[in-house]
Amino acid sequence: MFRQLKKTLVATLITAMMAGQTAPAFADSATDQLPDIGTTAASTLSIAQEMQMGDFYIRQLRGSAPLINDPLLQQYINQLGMRLVNHAHSVRTPFYFHLISNDEINAFAFFGGNVVLHSALFRYADNESQLASVMAHEISHVTQRHLARAMEDQKRYAPLTWVGALGSILLAMASPQAGMAAMSGTLAGSRQGMISFTQQNEQEADRIGLQVLQRAGFDPQAMPAFLDKLLDQARYSSRPPEILLTHPLPESRLSDTRNRANQMRPVVVQSSEAFYMAKVRVLGMYNTGRNQLTGELLDSLDKGNVRQQHAARYGRALQAMENKNYAEAWRQLQPLLSASPNNPWYLDLATDIDLGQNKAASAISRLNGAPGLKTNPVLQLNLANAYVQSGQSAKAATILNRYTFSHRDDTNGWDLLAQAEAAQGSRDRELAARAELLALRGQLDQAITLLSSASSQVKVGSLQQARYDARIDQLRQMQQRFRQYQKNS
Predict the structure, then answer these.
(1) Is residue 137 annotated as involved in ligand binding?
(2) Do 153 and 162 meet the contact criterion of CB atoms below 8 Å apart?
(3) What is the residue range of the signal peptide feature (predicted)?
(4) Active site residue 138
(5) pLDDT for 110-154, tens place per residue?
(6) Catalytic pick among 70, 138, 219, 415
(7) Is 141 among the annotated ligand-binding positions?
(8) pLDDT (tens digit per residue) in 247-305
(9) Would you kindly state where each structural domain of the chain is located, as residue ranges?
(10) Which of 308, 355, 408, 424 has its CA 20 to 30 A from that of 224?
(11) What is the pTM of this model?
């Protein structure tokens, strides 16, 4: 379907583990839980405050970072992430998973259950369990409230208050180079005066993340296997992977993770087809230099199981579509789509191919016949996009008004709705949709300006004007709540 890249972010955090030695017995994860000490941060930062701060930061992130807002990829990483969250303990906030275009192998977590993955992870993760191990580690940083606990510690022992730390946190999100020098712990860098729990936090996240990984049905040995890959890179490179720069690996931490993984019962886990589809999609459509979909990778997938072979063919279709060779793209995709006509990965690409050839009617017919249309937001966005491209903007707006009501934080929906309303000449509704898009990107002043203009264009005293004015009041209240973070950013 359509996809949008946004602009710049930071670096950091992820999983750290190591390869292993044998153990004589296997431990069940239920007998190996750490005590829940995440609530020790409550005197500094309540859960409600963390949620509010997370809302502020993710809006800044949307406005300044190269987030990959691809509905298919967003759906995949959130489904994978929630599978892990469902097996985590001490979950106090909702979780949201994001993907950023970045060549460096890394990931990081911050307030409000937000976890960000670098696209390079798809290049280096051999299987779904390895990717899940990174996510489980990050989820554990959130459930244990490591950032809040670090702020509690610096409040006791440093002259800065926890509010004063927010400037460096935001700096880490906005500028990778500056952020790497400014932060440590969950967000990045090495300045111990700001956050002083680095090794303790990492060990907790390793241990708890390993338990989450096992309970969710993934291979616990994926953690040491993934770190082996990172260490191999470090041995033969003048500059180690970013993840190793931001996460020190003391021997005690390595041996602890290795021993725990080896004490868990071994399990054979097959990666899902969606993992391989996501891998080739990221590398084929959002490559940034080193992380590209190569012929070597596709040939390797061709030699694998059926899931990998399907992904290889899908990857070749993607490459052809990106090169506007629509005939070749359809030749590669058609056998896959015929065998699995309801597969959203295939339907999405078929829509792109049709729209690229100005065959919107074909895409609309195919999508309207898909059984999963009513329940799959990816297909709904595809259909709305096809309606917009075909000039049927009223039908697109009908879909998108329902969609944005249910998915208020999805910038794709608001962007398409603005296009649909503009095509119909509904200036006030277009402005309102664009205002929501700006608000999601942290540009609240501009959002209020657009809503004010929308309010002035409708009948005085009308229900529509009341709605616009009420939304303006909500955004002004949001500005008041966010002001303390802006002062320290």
Answers:
(1) yes
(2) no
(3) 1-27
(4) yes
(5) 888 999 999 999 999 999 999 999 999 999 988 988 777 766 665
(6) 138
(7) yes
(8) 555 556 667 878 898 999 888 999 999 999 999 999 999 976 666 898 999 999 999 99
(9) 29-263
(10) 308
(11) 0.85
